[in-house]
């Protein structure tokens, strides 16, 4: 499977594109991304498609700084749940190391490494997409995000020793100089940031020791393995796509950046099929949703991706041996009898 990124990687993309006079929906459809789906921040989408989209957008807007302009609109919260933990880390070192160690939780194509030597710390950033393509915009966005994290801890006046890119300088470096300062270097042997190692020992003024413990406990409870399986990925996408009414193997394959045959092959290797995962996921969600008295059965039908309540009722009866209304009544009686 090709690497995925969270939808939040394109946060503010639509607004930025429109401000530059280009149509974001047309460009997104060209790379197989759903503009409506951007509203779901934690949905995973193809990293290849996002990389292609940024390059197309830079060309269409004639802005070589498109990736940086998008990065300037980013917030730490765009990284997802890990941002809650980073805010409470005791110092810069632990925050950066956490961000590097768990990068797969927000961007699977990102591969970064922090090293120290001769009083300098070097944060190298790489993007691995599984195929050759231009990554200029995505790389500048990624490096800028790390730069913003460091500056958030070290202060607005902080300057690195160098910000390096392997690609050549743009015709106009104005945005780049504004973003990174005077130590910007192009045509270097790596992409990343060089800064004084002593910066890593700077305490985090935002950290609360009590909140840090709670944040770590929360993060440990949601942290996923780097070795996420194909069925795990498909199951997550099914949960996200069901309420949209567009949960099909074609849509899942598009989100993963592959074709439907590839999805079939990976699932078959694990002894699964798309229909079996779809049914299992629906069954699990249905049990949780129907038990919630505050949700109407019509609403639940839509959340599970059924075109009509009658179709949901027939499916539910096949799975549970009774209608959803009867199942809810039985559950309510059981709960009441248990309380007496």
Automatic annotation (TrEMBL):
Keyword Magnesium carried by entry: no
Entry keyword set: DNA-binding
Domain HTH araC/xylS-type, first and last residues per copy: 232-330
Highest taxon listed in the record's lineage: Bacteria
Entries under Pfam families matching the protein: Arabinose_bd (PF12625), HTH_18 (PF12833)
Official protein name in the record: AraC family transcriptional regulator
Organism: Streptomyces niphimycinicus
């Amino acid at each position: 499977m090709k690497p995925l990124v969270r939808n939040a990687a394109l946060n503010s993309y639509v607004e930025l594109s429109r401000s530059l006079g280009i149509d974001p929906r047309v460009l997104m459809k060209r790379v197989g991304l759903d503009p409506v789906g951007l509203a779901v921040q934690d949905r995973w989408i193809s990293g290849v498609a996002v990389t292609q989209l940024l390059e197309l957008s830079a060309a269409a807007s004639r802005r070589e700084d498109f990736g940086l302009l998008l990065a300037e609109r980013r917030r730490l919260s765009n990284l997802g749940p890990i941002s809650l933990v980073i805010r409470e880390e005791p110092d810069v070192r632990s925050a950066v190391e956490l961000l590097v160690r768990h990068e797969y939780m927000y961007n699977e194509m990102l591969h970064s490494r922090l090293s120290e030597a001769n009083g300098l710390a070097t944060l190298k950033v790489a993007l691995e997409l599984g195929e050759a393509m231009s990554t200029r915009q995505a790389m500048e966005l990624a490096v800028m995000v790390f730069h913003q994290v460091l500056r958030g801890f070290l202060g607005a006046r902080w300057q690195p020793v160098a910000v390096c890119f392997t690609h050549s300088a743009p015709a106009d470096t104005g945005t780049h100089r504004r973003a990174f300062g005077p130590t910007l270097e192009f045509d270097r042997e790596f992409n990343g940031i060089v800064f004084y190692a002593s910066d890593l020992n700077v305490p985090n003024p935002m950290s609360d020791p009590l909140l840090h413990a709670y944040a770590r406990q929360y993060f440990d409870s949601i942290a996923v393995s780097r070795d996420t399986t194909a069925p795990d990925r498909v199951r997550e996408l099914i949960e996200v796509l069901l309420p949209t009414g567009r949960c099909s193997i074609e849509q899942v394959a598009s989100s993963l950046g592959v074709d439907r045959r590839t999805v079939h092959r990976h699932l078959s290797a694990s002894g699964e099929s798309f229909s079996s995962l779809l049914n299992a996921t629906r069954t699990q969600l249905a049990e949780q949703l129907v038990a919630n008295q505050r949700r109407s059965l019509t609403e639940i039908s839509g959340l599970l991706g059924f075109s009509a309540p009658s179709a949901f009722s027939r499916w539910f009866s096949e799975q549970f041996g009774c209608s959803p209304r009867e199942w809810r009544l039985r559950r309510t009686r059981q709960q009441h009898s248990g309380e007496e």
